[in-house]
Amino acid sequence: MSSVYPRQATPPLNTAASVDLPEVENYVSHALKTTKPLPPVRWDNLISELNWIGVFVITLPPVVSIVGAYHTRLRWETALFSVFYYFFTGLGVTAGYHRLWAHRSYNAGRFLQYFLAIAGAGAVQGPIKWWSRGHRAHHRYTDTELDPYNAQEGFWYSHMGWMLVKPRRKPALPAPLLLTMSFVVPTLIAWLGWGDARGGYVYAGFVRLCFVQHSTFCVNSLAHWLGASPFDDKHTPRDHLVTALCTLGEGYHNFHHQFPMDYRNAIKWYQYDPTKWFIWVCQKLGLATHLKVFPDNEVRKGQLTMQLKRLRETQESLAWPSDSNDLPVISWDSYIEQCAQRPLILISGFIHDVASFIDEHPGGAHWIVKYIGKDATTAFFGGVYDHSNAAHNLLAMKRVGVLHGGIRLAVDDKAVPPAQRLKIARYAELSSSNASSTAYSDHDEGEGLLG
């Protein structure tokens, strides 16, 4: 029977141990070859391989939420408090577990550290050290079998399936603080505040917990599935407003994976990132310092790289004129001779077959016929009409030959149509390009029929 969730052991992120790692060309490949994988989870061993803590944490809140909400009236005070408590516990994860402890993107004072640790406990995310270790492994081994939340295994596996099977190490959950912040505190606040202990327990406790848990899970799933890759497309992380709305600003995930030490996820002022705003306010209040920001110059390089890549894809989907080196070199006498069989016009050293354009010429067919067998360079470049870039590009598509000794292709801009003057070229193409052209050589007596 096929496996339910294939799993691979993930080596611990231990700084001291990493010093002794072997020098290998690709550590992921080396680890997969030398590390014995955990047995795959199949239907016949599913019960024994389940992570019952994860199963309990994931399944109990929605069950209690549905049953409790059905039997409990939602008061407006409790509704507002539940939303507030969602943001409070959610920021404990995004600003605390994630950006402070996992990525060290800023420094926090003792008060802010305790505040975020207590808030994060209410999100039932496990110990800070365990959470940070797993998240660092996710960044180090993104989209590989060593990634704890490997998006290549599917949306639901990365969302929460990885929590349902046994991890390499059993998490030591700080149960007393977890239970207190998840259920006791919201119940007491709702009871003492407006006499709705039951509503606080159900809505601010369990219902809120469902939302904050799946908000965090979306960073591992939705953020690797929905959106664009404006900084790099090597791996699956993506940027999208919807994901940001679901995760308190963690939805600009493509940026985050490229620049994980940056305290921001969203770099534009209008992008939704309440976690960034919270950290910034803490800095202004003196609770946080040393907010790390990746150099803007390098961020813009990443954006430019992807923009050029998209332009290159568009460029390769278009038809372009024949390379001058692939066109036959024709003498003047041969050019005049062949004009008797078909309408050929010489412009900028290139011979053009204009048969398909005579009747479509905006200025009338007589202007085309007038220059057949002649050099119309001056007329085309302003002598009669200063043609548009579109006209230059269209003309280049009609090239069928090069006049022998007609033009210095490497130095005359007239030989390059506007659409090709900023053409995207890979480094290998630039390094191997040849500035000279056989069309200019006065010693080349070669001649061929026009294509």
Q: What do these coordinates show?
A:
This protein is mostly helical and 451 residues long. The protein folds into two domains: 15-305, no CATH class; 324-432, Cytochrome b5-like heme/steroid binding domain (Flavocytochrome B2, Chain A, domain 1). The protein contains 19 helices and six strands. It has helices at residues 15-18, 27-34, 46-49, 52-71, 76-102, 110-121, 128-140, 155-164, 175-194, 197-220, 241-246, 253-258, 274-284, 296-316, 332-338, 365-370, 377-380, 389-396, 427-432; strands spanning 107-108, 288-289, 329-330, 344-347, 350-353, 399-403. Helix 5 crosses helix 6 and helix 5 (76-102) runs parallel beside helix 10. The two termini are 62 Å apart. It is a multi-pass membrane protein. Belongs to the fatty acid desaturase type 1 family. Stearoyl-CoA desaturase that utilizes O(2) and electrons from reduced cytochrome b5 to introduce the first double bond into saturated fatty acyl-CoA substrates. One of its GO terms (molecular function) is heme binding.
Write the layout of secondary structure elements.
Layout lengths: L14 H4 L8 H8 L11 H4 L2 H20 L4 H27 L4 E2 L1 H12 L6 H13 L14 H10 L10 H20 L2 H24 L20 H6 L6 H6 L15 H11 L3 E2 L6 H21 L12 E2 L1 H7 L5 E4 L2 E4 L11 H6 L6 H4 L8 H8 L2 E5 L23 H6 L19
Parallel strand pairs: 3-6
Antiparallel strand pairs: 1-2, 4-5, 5-6
Helix pairs in contact: 4-10, 5-6, 5-7, 5-10, 9-10
Biggest sheet strand order reads: 3-6-5-4
How many strand elements? 6
Strand content: under 5%
Low-confidence stretches: 1-19, 168-172, 435-448
Largest sheet: 4 strands, mixed
Average predicted local confidence, pLDDT? 86
- General form: elongated
Helix tally?
19
Helical content band = 40-55%
The span between the termini is: 62 Å
Radius of gyration: 33 Å
Q: H/E order of the elements?
A: HHHHHEHHHHHHHHEHEHEEHHHEH
SSE-based structural type: mainly alpha
Structurally, how many domains make up the residues? 2
